[in-house]
Amino acid sequence: MILYGIPNCGTMKKARAWLDERGIGYHFHDYKKAGLDEATLRGWVVELGWEQLINKRGQMWRKLEPSVRDNLDEEGAIRVMLETPGIIRRPVLDTGNERHVGFSEDQYQAIFTS
User: Fold this and answer.
1) First-residue to last-residue Cα distance in the chain
2) In this structure, what CATH number is given to the domain that contains residue 59?
3) Catalytic site includes residue 9
4) 15-65 pLDDT, tens per residue?
5) What is the Cα–Cα distance from 110 to 114, expressed in whole angstroms?
6) How would you write the chain as a 3-class SS string?
7) Domain range spanning residue 44?
8) Could you tell me which of 101, 110, 96, 107 has the C-alpha nearest to residue 45?
9) Contacts from 68-76 at CB under 8 Å and sequence distance 24+?
10) I need a surface site. Which of 2, 36, 64, 106 has the fewest CB within 10 A?
11) pTM here?
12) Active-site residue, selected from the candidate residues 9, 19, 45, 93
């Protein structure tokens, strides 16, 4: 299992703490430092949709040029996420069978009890 994100994000800290408290093993992939390969990202886009992956509440979104934000489509979103991985909503949890975006205790409880 892989947990994708950046270490200093509050939501990431909550997700990691939740997994750690329950002894659930995972590999942490810091996509801000290690990047993200295009094939993985394109797979996420197919499975989850690019709209789900773009963090429109974050600082990186606000830093985008308005012309880019206002005209974003799938290919543009992929390009932006590859160039600026910090704009990807986090965490992305890859259980091996499916991917999940974001964190809430209820969401993770449902993932790990099904």
Assistant:
1) 16
2) 3.40.30.10
3) yes
4) 999 999 999 999 999 988 998 999 999 999 999 999 999 999 888 899 999
5) 6
6) CEEEECCCCHHHHHHHHHHHHCCCCCEEEECCCCCCCHHHHHHHHHHHCHHHHECCCCHHHHHCCHHHHHCCCHHHHHHHHHHCHHHECCCEEECCCCEEECCCHHHHHHHHHC
7) 2-113
8) 101
9) 74/45, 74/50
10) 106
11) 0.91
12) 9
Q: How many domains does the chain have?
A: 1
Chain centroid to CA 61: 14
CB 15 within 8 A of CB 47: no
**Region 80-95: what's the mean pLDDT?**
94
Burial class of 44 by CB neighbour count within 10 A (0 to 12, 13 to 18, 19+): buried
CB hemisphere CA count around 38 (13 angstroms) = 7
Q: What angle do CA 89, 7, 47 make, to 5 degrees?
A: 30
Determine the average pLDDT of the residues in 65-85: 93
Do the Cβ atoms of 50 and 80 come closer than 8 Å? Answer: no
